[in-house]
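Re: zinc ion structure - here you go.
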Amino acid sequence: METVEVFTSEGKGRALKAVKEFLSGEVIFAEPAYAAVVFDSLTHLICHTCFKRQEKLHRCGQCKFAHYCDRTCQRGAWLNHKNECSAIKKHGKAPNENIRLAARIMWRIEREGGGLTEGSLVSIDDLQNHVENFGEEEKKELRADVESFIEFWPPQSQQFGMQYISHIFGVINCNGFTLSDQRGLQAVGVGVFPNLCLVNHDCWPNLCFRSTIELRALGKISPGEELTVSYIDFLNVSEDRRKQLKKQYYFDCTCEHCQKKIKDDLMLAVKEGEHKPSQDMVKEVIQFSKDTLEKINKARSEGVYHEVVKLCRECLKKQEPVLGDTNIYLLRILSIVSEVLSYLQMFEEAADHAKRMVDGYMYIYHPNNAQLGMAMMRAGVTHWHAGLIEIGHGMICKAYAILLVTHGPTHPITKDLEVMRVQTEMELRMFQQNEFMYYKMREAALSNQKVQVMPEPSTEASQDLFVKKQ
Ligand SMILES: [Zn+2]
Ligand SMILES: [Zn+2]
Ligand SMILES: [Zn+2]
């Protein structure tokens, strides 16, 4: 850890700064979880050691709760699972993820103490818990968690006071990071990473946090510069971002983008020129968009995708004469409708919407934003399916360049993109040499293989870094 240093940042308290220069895409540091658990809903689908999603998992013969890829993962888990295993057996069933994570932290403290451990810049004891900021509802939940914990915690283990147990739950509540599966597409668990807790928020950060444990530079970082990540998605106006940060993380964002309201005008853009809409009209369309988004989320979570498409088309009709191309309410609808239409194999219409979505995103997001990269990839694949090879290839190249920085060259998604880049480049060359032959070949290829199905649209669009109630 000679490349970063803890310091006090004005108005923000403890922070981390660079000691050396970092280049775009460089890994600042990688940190294994201090403790981590699989989400309750996925305990039988995800390996409890490596957090990979596997077809067949082996069950722990003792507690019948823990699941592993194989013997290696099971052996690797034993130090952390041993106490948990016998406690679950005694208790009769496994408690919820919060209790399990707290217990894993406490057993590690029992083994090593709560002070600084090797490679860490801050100890568990020293992490912030924000318990004093909790509202009534949160306090109630905290009390319930502490009670369930005490019921679960075995009498032969080291005993901790109520206050210390509350501290641990407070730490989990404000510092629980999301762990994703091997492809980084689904949140599968929660873990505590003490060093990461030192990295403060900025709506326009210089780092991104991916692959559960790596912090990567989004551009050149000079020695002495404070290191920041974004705790939330940037695609909200500053006022809404600040509200969300205050509610979930208990601080007022004073970053430059919030103070100067940078990009708010783009996010709320309206049509210009002789058909410039009235303020009332804009208000009405935004309200209509908000209401429609609620209906869409409901239909989407129920898997009624044709209804989603219908709602989106109606909304776009209302938005188009009024909202500007970078307006976030328009972009949200474009994102949903392009994803769902791709899933329904209506690639041409999907491609058109996807193109407008990424064109808008490019004005708003940081050029190396991971969400932008993922959206670009989705748009590229959609164009490819629609037979729009030129645009599709261009998008896949752009997505690849972004993911090289945000995810790194060895991430499975980056590797997939590289394969797609080579494939589309070959198809593009064929297209340029002989368009007729290209379409013939494509037709033949498509009729020979079962049509590739796009992944089902995810119901939760959570891009957040932390596991947090909304
Ligand atoms: Zn495993
Ligand atoms: Zn077990
Ligand atoms: Zn901000």
